[in-house]
Design a protein that fits this description.
- By secondary structure, this protein is α/β, with parallel strands linked by helices.
- It has 2 domains: 64 residues; 208 residues, Rossmann fold (3-Layer(aba) Sandwich), CATH 3.40.50.150.
- The chain is built from 11 helices and 10 strands.
- Helix 1 crosses helix 2.
- It is elongated.
Length: 293
Amino acid sequence: MSHPFTGHTVETARRTLTARFRTNAIDSAELDARILVGAALGLDLTGLITAATRILTAAEAVRLENLACRRLTGEPVARILGAKEFWGLPLQLSTATLVPRPDTETVVELALEMLRAGPAQDPLRIADIGTGSGAILLALLSELPGAYGIGTDISAAALHTASTNARHLKLACRAAFTACDYASALSGAFDLIVSNPPYIRSAEIIHLATEVRDHDPLGALDGGSDGLDAYRALVPQAARLLAPGGVLVVEVGHDQSAEVERLMMATGLTLERPPKADLAGTARAVGGRKLPS
């Protein structure tokens, strides 16, 4: 049985796949095609260029068609590969974790800005609530060599993925993970608490892009009827756990920053700077500080 890529060179396979993706309205058609051809053949960008005129083997043609079909049904490239880069760090994914998105890097940026504007702490203690793949916590630990962190998640499978990522990035000696609902198992004082909680309104989930709706875990998306359930639980817990002068930074949905700021102020946190916008200009990260005692 022949496959669509039988007899193709590496370059014609890439062009053919790009055209198929464009026909199916995949926005990043060229990039996705290049990545998947590379994955099917075990080649990086340089390898693809060098091997451009080589004919695909039968096994490679089959492998590439399988990957192409998965992408054409709406499965994101990161899910197909089981990996995604965040803050320059390669992270493994699982079905229990969100695919880390560039928007979430605003949480890391705002957290670092607010830490540097506050009192110096040594060692710095960080908690990442609903850590998923560990993306936010591990990004912060990579920037703060004197820091120690703990990630919580209700999913044991997500925690396994996060701890695997910590080990591969050689950060395991400064990262711990525990299963609980939000911050319910934590005690002691933290200098920084971060979170990307579920914040999509329940009724809006059906309208999300296929890549998100059908492939990200529902529990990491559904924020209740108004999208704010997680913040109502998380913000008071975080306010209690922060050390004097400590910082809470959370990711929010496109129209939620003002409401989350109100929740922070209601727990006694101060708002010393406006929310940080993502590349699209949407207020994406909200930060509050606990007043020094």
